[in-house]
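Exercise 7b. Backbone tokens:
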């Protein structure tokens, strides 16, 4: 059932990405106003599906340390026996959003629903019948406001808050989930964009990942740099505690035009929490594939 659901969403988003890129064959960084429809000239109304975060497919992804036996500080969610996962797998990442309400709260705010999904597929592992090792589902409700401020030469453009749920849809002991209240602000300057997203974790009655904040972190920064035919973006998280100085994660991406609409995507990452079940598992990875939608 999960595979059917995933393939349906993937097909729908492929159609959407083609429609959005057909007018522009180059790799292009969108303005924050364009992405979030902040001005009258960029508003397109409600219930129109648009891109949110990057959409890419890594044909090959290498991990220095596959998580063959996930564990949790809650013993009920520790896997009793290892699985012989490969160092190599495929990965895809899809993301979209839709505006539900426009010009609310004194005519300033917009309410969005967002959805992000990533999947790690052991497609090259015939020994365990090529399973999906991990699928993460991340729906959220986002309240966004346009704003103007100056910071170190950057111009702040948005300020908002979101309710975010993330889970892997699996049963015990592989189940992982958490809920967060996330705050965000985005700023830009010429070819640069920065988005800051600190969050507060909401309490769970049965905590599946008690120390997730100390590994994945309490906030995220995204830095995007765009040039014609090239885009580089960095995504980092950190716990922001002295005892966890070597935790968190860092991901570096390079999107480059190959020919026409075809764009390559190279990704390197290091640290904890590449997927939800890996929240307390450290690894280094490298992936190479194609990008459909970037920042």
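Sequence design result:
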């Amino acid at each position: 059932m999960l595979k059917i659901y995933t393939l349906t969403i993937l097909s729908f988003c492929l159609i959407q990405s083609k429609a959005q890129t057909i007018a522009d064959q180059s790799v292009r960084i969108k303005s924050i106003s364009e992405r979030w429809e902040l001005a009258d000239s960029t508003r397109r109304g409600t219930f129109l599906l648009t891109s949110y975060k990057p959409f890419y497919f890594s044909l090959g992804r290498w991990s220095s340390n596959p998580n063959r036996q996930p564990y949790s500080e809650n013993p009920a969610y520790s896997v009793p026996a290892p699985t012989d996962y490969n160092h190599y797998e495929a990965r895809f990442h899809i993301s979209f959003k839709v505006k539900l309400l426009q010009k609310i709260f004194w005519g300033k705010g917009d309410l969005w629903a967002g959805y992000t999904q990533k999947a790690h597929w052991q497609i090259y592992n015939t020994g365990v019948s090529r399973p999906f090792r991990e699928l993460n589902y991340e729906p959220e409700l986002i309240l966004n406001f346009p704003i103007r401020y100056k910071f170190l030469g950057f111009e702040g453009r948005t300020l908002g808050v979101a309710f975010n749920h993330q889970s892997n849809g699996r049963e015990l002991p592989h189940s992982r989930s958490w809920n967060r209240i996330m705050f965000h602000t985005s700023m830009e300057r010429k070819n640069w964009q920065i988005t800051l997203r600190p969050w507060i974790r909401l309490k769970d009655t049965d905590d599946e990942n008690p120390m997730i904040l100390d590994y994945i972190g309490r906030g995220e920064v995204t830095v995007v740099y765009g040039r014609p035919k090239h885009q580089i973006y960095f995504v980092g998280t950190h716990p922001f505690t002295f005892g966890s100085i070597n935790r968190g994660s860092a991901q570096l991406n390079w999107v480059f035009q190959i020919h026409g609409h075809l764009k390559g995507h190279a990704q390197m990452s290091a640290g904890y929490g590449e997927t939800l079940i890996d929240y307390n598992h450290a690894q280094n990875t490298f992936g190479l594939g194609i990008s459909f939608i970037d920042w």
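Instructor comment: The two ends are 30 Å apart (CA to CA). The chain is about 10% helix and 50% strand.
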